[in-house]
Amino acid sequence: MKKLSLTALVFAVATGSACAQDAASQNGSGEDPEVLKAAATITEADYRRRIGVIAHDSMGGRDTPSRGLDMTAAWIASEFERFGLRPGGDEGSFLQHYPIQRVQPDYASSGIEVMGSGSLRFGEDVTVGRTPVEGDFSGGVVLVGGPVDREGAGDAVVGRHVVYLAEAGGSQRAERIAVRSLQDAGATSVLSVSSGTDAAWQRSVSQSASRIAQRIGSASRAPSFTVREQSIEALLEVNGASLERVRNVAEMTIHPVPGLEITLSPRLQVHEDQRAPNVVGILEGSDPELEDEYVLYSAHMDHVGMRAPDASGDSIWNGADDNGSGTTGIVEVAEAFASMSTPPRRSIIFLLVSGEEKGLWGSREFVANPPVPMEQIVANINADMIGRNWTDQIVVIGKEHSDLGETLEEVNARHPELDMEPIDDIWPEENFYGRSDHFNFARAGVPILFFFNGTHEDYHGRDDEVDRIGAEKASRISKLMFFVGAEVASRTERPRWDPESRQRIVL
Length: 507
Fold this sequence. Notes:
By secondary structure, the protein is of the alpha/beta class.
């Protein structure tokens, strides 16, 4: 394909915004004229120029991590700075970095301090879980057995090491779910009891010590460990307790061990240490009563990088639709909001994440280390693939789970000029709800809308190129996302979950 220099493309984006008439003079929707004027800054021409930068060959397919991804993040950060947004990343910058490491347990350097009688040792009595961690984790000890109920665990496990005895004959999946429930309930750590033979324990120790694992981002969950039954039983016995209190119980049973406190200090060998960026820009709200609440816009800026070249030598998977299209949409929306002389009542966060293609890494890091408390984020509007397929419809996943769906319908009805129909998820069997970054925000309690045009023959393929993007359609979807966010950011009441959906989705 013909290639332009990145410098030329960036210059075109920075200086070539198309003029647009004030929509307030042409639209009888009743929208605030300033909102209409801001929406008019989102144009097909601007959209096309920006996606041409993001999905340019020079970005190398934006793999996580990669130089091209870093370049993409730096360019988006420069746009946010130009718009006048406030940085929401590390040390006053627009970039939030998270580690991508290959690590191995270092049992020789790890330690366990027992405040009470008895002792435990890493590599002999205790092994680390499949996701190794490093740190010092202190707390008292409680024993837990039976079917685990996260809500029922309550304060009894918060800030304590949980020694968990799974039901005999239970499945590994059931045990993993129980451990996660205890982590989510606020345990300092979870030590699953292993009751196998001596030979089986020695094999597990050897496998654990030699396993090199990938460690992504900041630890957002309590660490998990495995403890040998004979070892923990000996420790409990000298402290007046026993696993028999929680063995083969029909209901969840929690038994504190008074006077026993432990500090677990696992250490790691780092074999490879890289990092990847998110980009975070913030627009301050105008209402003193609501400016500490936030509407969050998000999209993932990463793609799958480079592959073997074809006959023409093309080795770059540019990911124009996936997800140059959503990324461009969020940058367009950010510029529109930043153009307003009086911002909406609530503040707005614009987030472009990396690592979505690897497992929603960047959004998971944001949730673990947000620039504002997560409970102050009232809604998330996520855009992932909005540049292909139908010209007059867009699937909006998640509308049924909160009253954001009603807000979307109301706003869209006020804007027939967009000629865009938001429709329900037509691929429920594909579980797209759990496959993009909004999922991490929903799990953290934030109501979401996920704008998505579906996959196509070029999905994760070489030919997902800019020349196949419907920029005019994508600019209309971007305007719809802008109008919806402006409405949410201006209403007094924050969005409300459907109670059944919240019970099922939120951790």
